[in-house]
Write a structure and sequence with these properties.
With 124 residues, the protein is mainly β. It has one helix and eight strands. It has an eight-stranded antiparallel beta barrel.
């Protein structure tokens, strides 16, 4: 039993020592995107969204600027159709094509549409 344990520990030490000695250079990650897209919603409020992704495509996220200058940074999460960005606490930003809507939690913690039928516009 002690030989087995010594062998396992030896392998673990060798593995840990050699993984830090890789000759492969690590890629320098960058953030792509960020061009503003302005949406006008059915109540005439405007929302500005800036979509980003990490250069290795491991993460997509959006910065959403709401009326009143409240800004949220939200990661893209799994969606059956379109794109869904959420922190799962306060808001959800849904997009499909040039349309979007925003849900926010009410006082009871239920999701409610706050900005609906938001359409991408060419200019502010």
């Amino acid at each position: 039993m002690s030989r087995y344990l010594a062998g396992v520990l030896s392998c673990a030490i060798i593995f840990l020592c050699t993984t830090g000695c890789s000759t492969q250079q690590k890629k320098h990650l960058t953030i792509d995107g960020g061009n503003p897209i302005v949406y006008r919603c059915e109540n005439n409020d405007q929302i500005t969204a800036r979509y980003y992704n990490i250069s290795d495509k491991s993460l997509h996220f959006v910065k959403v600027l709401l009326p009143g200058d409240t800004e949220y940074t939200l990661p893209c999460v799994l969606s059956a159709s379109g794109a869904r960005y959420t922190d799962d606490r306060e808001i959800v930003w849904w997009t499909k094509g040039s349309f979007a809507f925003l849900e926010a939690r009410d006082k009871s913690g239920n999701w409610r549409i706050k900005y609906n039928n938001c359409k991408e516009i060419a200019d502010k």
